[in-house]
């Protein structure tokens, strides 16, 4: 509410002050025979305080002056005149005016001080994030770059004789390092897009089964020592989603599982579609598409499970490396498609990510009619 009122034009703030004080005074005037004028003074002070909490100082001062004039004209005898019959009421009016002014000014200054404090906190948090990013990138970018440069130097060296088999191994190392480097750059670019709010999903019909296998193919080197199980119905319909964003979501989750589970761990990917039992197919009805990615690793610490989607957050006892961007990008891409992602630990060990998309569906048999 405060951020909305802060955008109100100056002339409108004066109008709000006049209307607020006038409405409060009108309500008090209707019950003047039952209310003591001291209580009326308290009520008008509350109005001035509320205005001071949201508006600029000059409109607030106007409300304080207007409250004092209304107090004098309508609630101090004799009524409907600015003449005051006794010294006690004169002192009361002067004190009311002074208190209203001081209250308005102090409330405004407190609000201003809070804004300054918030700006400082934002700057401090920004520096922390900036330092965390630099620390992460110094490792995540330097490692693949060093691998690429070292392998190229070895291949080009005229003093070292390298067999064709070893050359192929070095080329493979260059390829893996390049893919890792590209992954980190993609994450940085994606986070930049999310921060700037320029993510505009390009919705089209997607074959999620094909998408999943494409992701697994691109991660085959990272998944070499893991057991991969895919559950997807043969008659799975097409879903209307952004292919690129959804591919990046699954890529980041599977890659994350491959990096933080022990060798031999099982990673399961399940694409589910559960229409209502009495559902009559309608191409314009949103239906649930559920993607589940789970593993049988060590899971997440319960004290940190609510923080894993935060930008740059890395588990306290996680291995060296990682920028802490992967899961925050996943959440951003899911929400960009009006979806929801949840994370929980499995009772038998491991973690399970569940993504729910409300989306249009199309049975594959209907493609020819599309």
From TrEMBL:
EC number from the UniProt entry: 2.7.13.3
Keywords from the named record: ATP-binding, Kinase, Membrane, Nucleotide-binding, Phosphoprotein, Transferase, Transmembrane, Transmembrane helix, Two-component regulatory system
Keyword presence, Glycoprotein: no
GO molecular function: ATP binding; phosphorelay sensor kinase activity
Principal localisation: membrane
Residues annotated as signal peptide: none
Domain of life: Bacteria
GO CC terms in record: plasma membrane
A Pfam family of this chain: HisKA
Provenance organism: Flavobacterium urumqiense
Residue ranges of domain Histidine kinase in the record: 136-361
Subcellular location: Membrane
PANTHER family cross-referenced by the UniProt entry: SENSOR PROTEIN KDPD (PTHR45569)
Catalyzed chemical reaction(s): ATP + protein L-histidine = ADP + protein N-phospho-L-histidine
InterPro entries the record matches: HATPase_C_sf, HATPase_dom, His_kinase_dom, HisK_dim/P_dom, HisK_dim/P_sf, Histidine_kinase_KdpD, KdpD_sf, KdpD_TM
Keyword Zinc-finger among UniProt keywords: no
Transmembrane residue ranges: 12-30, 42-70, 90-106
Name of this chain's protein: histidine kinase
